[in-house]
Amino acid sequence: MKLSQHYTRTSVYISLTVLVIGAVIYYFAISYIGKQQLDRALQQQLTEAEEYIRSNKGDPQQYDLDRDHAVFVKTNAQLPFTRRFFDTTYFNPKEQKREAGRAVEDLVKLGESNYKVVITVSRTDQKHLIELISVITLALLVGLLAVLFVTNKYMLNGLWKPFQLTLNEIKQFNIADVDQFQGKPSKVDEFTELNEAIREMSLRVNHDYLSLKQFTENASHEMMTPLAVVTTKLDTLIQDETLSAAQLGQIADIYSSVNKSSRLNQSLLLLSKLENKMVNEEEVISVEKVIETKIFQFHELLQNKEITIEHTLTPRQIKASKYLVDILLNNLFSNAIRHNVPGGRVLIDLTVNQLSVKNTGTAIALNTQQIFERFQKGKDSQGTGLGLTLVKNICQLYGYSIQYEYEPGWHKFVVTF
Question: Which residues are the signal sequence here (predicted)?
């Protein structure tokens, strides 16, 4: 969920909670004020009732005036009497129905007699007024929430626009580019500080990258020079007819180790270029034609191990570096042959979406968690342990996926375009 959505949800929840609590308090406050007003009116009516009793020579009678209703009952109760206000209902003769009312009860003395007087006033109008105020308040509450939601969702999106632009620029940032991160200007101080921090970080990263790149290239060059000298000297020694068979065997071992060191150096250099996306040349490649060429190149090695190769190729074109595609196929084919069994089989299947290289081999599945990691290889492997790592990095560079699958007696690598 986006930050703006979190902010909108939080602000709506908080506003809704505060407004609901405020509306409840507002409702009870209005009700309380309304009752206080009715009680003051009842007190005034009680004063008028006392005057009515004193001016009435006979027994006071019940009377109705507008919505005021007074009842007099002769009682033996004596003073002092506690005056009481309470909610009740009464029959309104004018409306011919029962209505909600507010009443006051008190004791009034007339001569030697005491009368309990109960005066009731209608609170229907007040109740309607409170309901109307509640409806208006509820409508305002809904309207405020709607305005808050729309404002946060649409109108405030402009505040996040600099952040979105900065995020897009970060996504497009390439450490190998000459252009540095600039950031989009913003009137918001936090976004300005964010751009400045990212700009400083990009400068440090670019500086470290250039230093590492220069070190890698220099180290590779410096290593290749003595390796080439050693290889040349070994070639000269091998041609010496005075050497014994034992000496030639030792020289051959040294020659093999030097070649392995040279391949390892080149593989590590290529991995560094892939991880830093320094291989930019691309062209349209017909994968099926490259596979046919590669099968021809491995023909002699296949014959030596008596391995049968079968292929089903569907025309498929991709845009990539021909050099990297060649390395990818070399590693997949060489693995399928090197780790095969004498008289085994290799099945190659190319479709529009996938390339599958399947070979017979040992009856033990490889470790899928480590197979694509650097320097992970079998005990009897003569490789550098970087072949499948290169395959994985090449696939990642072009957005492909590489998967290993095991079937009883078969090992399968699938590249999904």
Answer: none
Residue 161 lies in a domain: no
Asked if residue 214 is part of any domain, the answer here is: yes
Q: What is the rounded CA–CA span in Å between residue 235 and residue 229? A: 10
Q: What is the largest CA-CA distance in the chain?
A: 159
Cα–Cα distance for residue pair 349/340, rounded to 1 Å? 18
CA dist list (Å): 198 to 147, 178, 179, 321, 333: 35, 16, 14, 32, 44
Same domain (yes/no): 188, 119? no
Predicted local confidence at residue 159, as pLDDT: 73
Residue 215 CB-density burial (10 A; 0-12 exposed, 13-18 middle, 19+ buried): exposed
Model pLDDT for residues 133-173, shown as the tens digit of each residue: 878 878 887 887 788 777 776 766 677 777 778 888 777 77
Specify the residue for token string 């952040």: 163
Give the Å distances, CA to CA, from 405 to 46, 307, 367, 413, 414.
97, 21, 10, 6, 8
Q: Which long-range contacts (CB under 8 A, 24 or more apart) does 144-149 make?
A: 144/15, 144/19, 145/12, 145/15, 145/16, 145/19, 148/11, 148/12, 148/15, 149/8, 149/12
Of 45, 44, 112, 104, nearest in space to 74 by CA: 112
Handedness of CA 218, 222, 227, 228 (dihedral sign): positive
Q: What DSSP state is assigned to residue 124?
A: H
**Per-residue pLDDT reduced to its tens digit, 256-286:** 777 766 666 666 666 666 666 666 678 898 9
Tokens of 178: 């000459």
The answer to whether the CB of 92 falls within 8 A of the CB of 100 is no
Residue carrying structure tokens 């600039």: 182
CATH code for the domain of 355: 3.30.565.10
CA distances to 214, 329, 389, 400 from 272, rounded to whole Å, are: 11, 19, 12, 19
Is the bond leading into 93 cis (omega within 30 degrees of zero)? no
The verdict on residue 40 lying in a domain is yes
298 shares its domain with 406:
yes
The CA distance from 280 to 388, in Å, is: 21
Nearest residue to 386 via CA among 371, 402, 368: 371
Domain that includes residue 10, residue range: 3-154
Whether pTM > 0.85 for this model: the answer is no
| 23 and 150 together in one domain | yes
In the structure encoding, which two tokens stand for residue 360, read together? Answer: 């017979």
